[in-house]
Write a structure and sequence with these properties.
Elements (H helix, E strand, L loop, with lengths): L1 H11 L5 E4 L2 E4 L7 H14 L6 H4 L33 H14 L3 E5 L3 H15 L5 E6 L2 H13 L7 E4 L2 E6 L2 E6 L4 H8 L5 E4 L11 H5 L6 E7 L4 H11 L5 E8 L5 E7 L11
Parallel strand pairs: 3-4, 3-8, 4-5, 8-9
Antiparallel strand pairs: 1-2, 6-7, 9-11, 10-11
Helix pairs in contact: 1-2, 4-5
């Protein structure tokens, strides 16, 4: 099992390259790795080979920059100063894959937790869809007020200020199925979802940061989901996020299925969430 898991991982993790798909450019497709296979391979790399951070080290980008052609809808993101692709931000190949994912799924309402380069990509998608006569709404929840302001400023620079709504959502203590926990304050969403039909088709979870933990994000957000929602979890190769994958599949009153993990630099887990009926209380810290 260990050898098989590692072999599949290494074959799937080769160097990312750009390729033309119809009229756009994207990263070459990679297979979804089963959750169990990822956990097994990470154990092998970390504990037996003592390979540092494990999967991230093996699936990392090559030193060269990944940059789309100048006519790509997202090309302007590579021209921003200061650069948006740094640290634990979504890597270049993940953003390009996400763009292709949007073209295939065509979500009408998008939520994300943790704003940044993904907000810019979502807003670009929303603008192009609106120009084509199809309304798309983007809601980005950010717990750091300064970072939310920075994201809004970058949206304005790109002419996307009206294509995404960046919402200040501080972290507060809340009652969760597993007990009290810290998560985004989403109390304002009840009226929003009912009045404006803002339940998401797609939800990207890229926050809170690792030290805060993301385990509560899906349980809290799921109470506002519709009958079916696709959820993406960034940084899925980290131990804390792998724990989230296991915990979320065990949630009651909501069916969460992890379809697998895409072997990009930080890992992106793909979930399908159906028919949630969660109602949690909210209490200020």
């Amino acid at each position: 099992m260990l050898r098989k898991s590692l072999g599949h991982l290494l074959r799937a993790a080769g160097k990312p390259v750009l390729w033309r798909y119809r009229s756009s450019w994207c990263v070459e497709p990679r297979p979804l790795l089963p959750l169990r296979q990822v956990v097994t391979a990470k154990f092998l790399l970390q504990r037996i080979f003592r390979y540092g951070h494990g999967l991230q080290a093996v699936t990392g980008n090559p030193p060269r920059e990944i940059r789309p052609p100048t006519d790509h809808p997202l090309a302007s993101l590579w021209q921003l100063e200061p650069p948006v692709f740094s640290g634990w931000a979504l890597p270049e190949e993940t953003v390009l894959w996400l763009w292709q994912f949007l073209q295939e799924r065509k979500p009408r309402v998008i939520w994300e937790f943790g704003s940044g380069v993904s907000t810019l990509a979502f807003a670009t998608y929303a603008r192009l869809q609106t120009e084509a006569g199809r309304q798309v709404r983007v809601f980005s929840f950010e717990h750091e007020a300064e970072w939310a302001t920075a994201t809004r400023e970058r949206l304005e620079v790109l002419g996307l200020g009206d294509c995404a709504c960046v919402i200040d959502a501080p972290l507060v203590n809340q009652e969760l199925p597993q007990g009290p926990g810290l998560c985004y304050d989403l109390g304002c969403l009840t009226a929003l979802c009912v009045a404006d039909e803002a339940t998401p088709d797609l939800c990207l979870i890229d926050g809170p940061p690792d030290e805060k933990g993301r385990g509560a994000t899906l349980p809290v957000a799921a109470q506002y989901f519709g009958e079916q929602t696709t959820v993406l979890l960034d940084d899925a190769f980290r131990d804390t996020e792998l724990d989230c994958c296991h915990a979320w599949e065990k949630l009651k009153n909501v069916n969460v299925v992890c379809k697998g993990i895409l072997p990009f630099r930080h890992g992106v887990a793909l979930f399908e969430v159906t028919k949630p009926s969660l109602v949690f209380g909210h209490s200020e810290a």
